Amino acid sequence: MKVCRTVQELREATRVWRGKGESLGFVPTMGCLHRGHLSLVERSRRENDKTVVSIFVNPLQFGPKEDFSVYPRTEEEDRRVLEQGGADLLFLPRVEEIYPPGFQTYCEVTQLTKPLCGLTREGHFRGVTTVVLKLFNIVSPQRAYFGQKDAQQAIVLTRMVEDLALNINLRVCPILREQDGLALSSRNRYLSREEREQAPGLSRALGRAESLFLEGERGARVLRDAVREELGRLPLFTPEYVELVDLGTLLPVERVESKALLLLAGRLGRTRLIDNIVLGGTYVDLGTQE
Ligand code: PAF
What we know:
Distance between the termini: 28 Å
CATH architecture of the largest domain: 3-Layer(aba) Sandwich
Number of domains: 2
Number of helices: 10
Structural class: alpha/beta
CATH superfamily of the largest domain: HUPs
Bound molecules: pantoate
Radius of gyration: 19 Å
Strand content: 15-25%
């Protein structure tokens, strides 16, 4: 696996592949890689000749009170995992490579970023869209891969791709879970033993709503209340939101007509966790189609 730290190095490496007509898949990450990230690499390898992975802990998407400085950085382990996972190139830029002195250009999706995580994480999605657009410009992939766990992020990025007519297919891949249901996340390593014991309660709560949905329940209030009731059984969990929204607009729905996205966020102790499920559909309903 080739490792590039500058834009110039990366462009030179990918120019050779492009010159041979090889297709490029791209998996942007913030490192601290787990099986969820590897599933994106695997999918990219199936669908492209070459796979580029970036690891960049993006300061622009962290609020002043968030965990940027302590966000886990596990470069050596990540490199080993990617090597084994068959990635062809790892892009590891320094902060100044992405945000050189004088940087002042941002990309913002204005509406989809307002609800849900946007309510408490001001500027977060602006940081995500700015860095992803810049990485897309640097890597110029045919396809890019994101996880459904960050469903709002995937929907915001899909909008950006469409609005700016980017020639990139955005693929959203299913959430990977621990055996007890906890969605894989780099932040899970922050959890204490007691918090980790309660963590599967999040997916259990979504599962409760899914069971009701499969039994025929379509009312948003009943479905949301079922999730809240389950979450209420977790003494260490402080919910931030439980919402049932339209997959296109992220606006709340009163009834699930055909499909809808059920999302939750909150803090388990001090760790912020999110999870979601598509009722009446699947993750492929997110992202762009080729
Ligand atoms: O999902 C993430 O890890 C990050 O938000 C991303 C897409 C790599 C942008 O920094």
